[in-house]
Design brief:
5-stranded antiparallel β-sheet, FAD-bd_PCMH, FAD-bd_PCMH_sub1, D-arabinono-1,4-lactone oxidase, globular, 8-stranded antiparallel β-sheet, binds flavin-adenine dinucleotide, 2 domains, 20 strands, FAD-bd_PCMH-like_sf, Vanillyl-alcohol Oxidase, Chain A, domain 3, 32% helix, single chain, alpha+beta, Uridine Diphospho-n-acetylenolpyruvylglucosamine Reductase, domain 3, 15 helices
Length: 437
C-alpha cells in the first residue's frame, strides 16, 4: 500500500518498479502499455492531491539521482540533474559547485521530477518556480520512446502534472551561490496586505492566523560576498536563544509556528485555538540568521497536515486573502496553523497556476486529526471567487471545466499530450478530472 506524506491519499498499485537506467524506464512503459496498465511516475509523495495515485504501475525514480553535468554560457550557468534527485541533494550538489537555485525552495524531500510536474514554488515577486528554471528536459513518452523535449514543447513539459511521460533528467538554469540574511519578524496584518510589503525584499512571505492582528513574516536579502563566515553561527545562536526566551518558535514564520502547542490545543480544546493563535502572534519576536538560502530558509514541517493552496492574480491577492481570513474567523474555522501568503512571478508554463500573471499564493493548512473538509471547502469558495487557480499538488474541487476556462493554452497542451502520450498510458482518474481525457 502506497501512502502520501499527509496520509490522506493511498493506493495499491499492481506493481512498483524501480528502473536503474533510461532503457529500464522505456521497457517498463512499453510492457505496461502492452498490458493496458496505466503508468504513474512517483516522487516523494508530498502532493496532497491524488496526482501520484494509481491502480497501475508506480515508477519509482529514486535510482535517478544526482547532477550529471553542467553547461550554459558565461553568466548563465546550467546543470543537468536526474529527476529522482531530492531537493536537499540538489541544493548540496549545487553548493559543492558554488551554485544555487534561484527559486527559494525550502522543503528537502520532494524530487526534481515531482516538483517540476506540479510547478513547485517559493516566494518572491520576481522569483519563478523550479519549472521556470527549466531549459531542457529528457523523458520517456507513452510509447516508451526516449525523447529530448523540443524547444517548442517546453512550456507544455515544464509543468506537466506527469501527463506527458516519465521525466528522466532536467537541465536547469542556476545562479552563483551566495549568502542571505533571513529575518523573521511580526508585522501588522494590514501592512502585510499592502502591495509595498511584497516589493520590499526579493524573497518574502507571511503567515497569518485569521483572528490575529499581527502577521508572522519572513524575508531574505542577499549579503555582500565579504560577510564573515562567523556571522552564521552568531546569528544562529542569537536566534536559538531568543526562541528559548520567548517560549514559542517563529522558525520558518510559516512552517513551524508554535505548531506543537497549537495542534495540542486544537485537539484538546478547539475553542481556545483563536486565543492561543493570537498569543503566538503577539509573542513573536524578530530573529535573524545568515547563510546559504537553502539552509536558512529550510523549515521542516513540525506536524502533518492537509493543504489547499491557490494562485490568485496579484491584483486580487490582498482582497482575496482578507476575505478568506475573515471568513475562517467568522465561521469558527480557525485551526492551529496560519494561512500562508506568498508571491511569485508570471510563469511561461502553459499549465502552471501562475501562468502569464503575477501571482499571490494563499495556502490553508489543516493539521492531521482535525476535520479538514469544512475549512478547505470554505477556502475553495473564497479563493475561486477571486480568480484563483489551485496548486496542482494541493487539495481542491477543481474540474476540467475550470481548467478550460482558466488556462488559455490548454488546447496547446492537449496537442502536445496527443503527441507524447497518444494512448493515455499516463492517464489517471485524478488527471482526467482536471485535464479531461
Ligand atoms: C510539508 C509540505 C510542504 C510543501 N511546501 C511546498 C512549497 O513550499 N511550495 C510548493 O510549491 N509546494 C509545496 N508542497 C507541495 C510539494 O512541493 C509538491 O507536492 C512536490 O513538489 C511534489 O514532489 P514529490 O517528489 O513529492 O512528487 P509526488 O507528490 O510524488 O508526485 C507529484 C506529481 O509529480 C509526478 N511526478 C513525480 N516524478 C515524476 C517524474 N520523474 N516524471 C514525471 N512526473 C513525475 C507524479 O506523477 C505526480 O503527478 C509542500 C508539500 C508538503 C507535504
Amino acid at each position: 500500500m502506497w501512502t502520501n506524506w499527509s496520509g490522506g491519499r493511498e493506493c495499491r498499485p499492481t506493481a512498483t518498479v524501480r528502473p536503474l537506467d533510461d532503457s529500464g524506464v522505456s521497457a517498463v512503459v512499453r510492457r505496461a502499455a502492452e498490458r493496458g496498465q496505466p503508468v504513474r511516475p512517483v516522487g516523494a509523495g508530498h502532493s496532497f492531491s491524488a496526482l501520484a495515485v494509481t491502480d497501475g504501475v508506480h515508477v519509482d525514480l529514486s535510482a535517478f539521482s544526482g547532477i550529471t553535468g553542467s553547461g550554459g554560457r558565461p553568466g548563465r550557468p546550467t546543470v543537468r540533474v536526474r529527476a529522482g534527485t531530492t531537493l536537499a541533494q540538489l541544493h548540496t550538489e549545487l553548493a559543492d559547485r558554488d551554485l544555487a537555485l534561484e527559486a527559494p525552495l525550502e522543503l528537502a524531500a520532494p524530487t526534481v521530477g515531482g516538483a517540476l510536474a506540479v510547478g513547485m514554488h517559493g516566494s518572491g515577486s520576481s522569483r519563478g518556480s523550479l519549472s521556470a528554471a527549466v531549459v531542457g528536459l529528457r523523458l520517456v513518452d507513452g510509447r516508451g520512446r526516449l525523447r529530448d523535449v523540443a524547444a517548442a514543447d517546453l512550456d507544455a513539459a515544464r509543468t506537466s502534472l506527469g501527463a506527458l511521460g516519465v521525466l528522466l533528467e532536467a537541465e536547469l538554469a542556476v545562479v552563483p551561490a551566495g549568502r542571505v540574511r533571513v529575518t523573521r519578524e511580526p508585522r501588522p496584518v494590514d501592512e502585510v496586505l499592502d502591495a509595498a510589503f511584497w516589493a520590499s525584499h526579493p524573497v518574502v512571505e507571511a503567515a497569518v492566523f485569521p483572528s490575529a492582528r499581527t502577521a508572522l513574516t519572513r524575508w531574505a536579502d542577499p549579503l555582500p560576498e565579504h560577510t564573515l563566515e562567523g556571522d552564521d553561527e552568531d546569528a544562529e545562536g542569537e536566534k536559538e536563544e531568543r526562541e528559548r526566551t520567548v517560549g514559542v518558535t517563529v522558525a520558518g514564520a510559516t512552517g513551524r509556528t508554535a505548531l506543537g502547542g497549537a495542534v495540542v490545543v486544537e485537539r484538546a480544546l478547539p475553542r481556545l485555538v483563536p486565543r492561543f493563535n493570537r498569543a503566538v502572534s503577539r509573542l513573536a519576536r524578530t530573529v535573524t540568521a545568515t547563510g546559504p538560502m537553502h539552509r536558512v530558509l529550510s523549515s521542516p514541517p513540525a506536524v502533518r497536515f492537509e493543504q489547499t493552496e491557490w494562485a490568485l492574480p496579484r491584483t486580487t491577492f490582498a482582497e482575496g486573502a482578507r476575505e478568506l481570513l475573515t471568513a475562517l474567523a467568522d465561521d469558527g474555522l480557525e485551526v492551529g496553523l496560519p494561512v500562508r501568503l506568498r508571491v511569485g512571478a508570471p510563469e511561461s508554463g502553459w499549465l502552471h497556476p501562475a501562468h502569464d500573471r503575477a501571482t499571490g499564493w494563499v495556502a490553508v493548512r489543516v493539521p492531521r486529526g482535525t476535520d479538514h473538509a469544512p475549512v478547505l471547502e470554505r477556502a475553495w469558495r473564497v479563493l475561486r471567487a477571486h480568480g484563483g487557480r489551485p496548486h496542482w499538488a494541493s487539495r481542491s474541487d477543481w474540474t476540467v471545466e475550470d481548467t478550460v476556462a482558466a488556462y488559455p493554452r490548454l488546447p496547446d497542451f492537449r496537442r502536445v499530450r496527443d503527441d507524447y502520450d497518444p494512448d493515455r498510458v499516463f492517464a489517471t482518474p485524478a488527471l482526467d478530472a482536471v485535464l479531461g481525457d
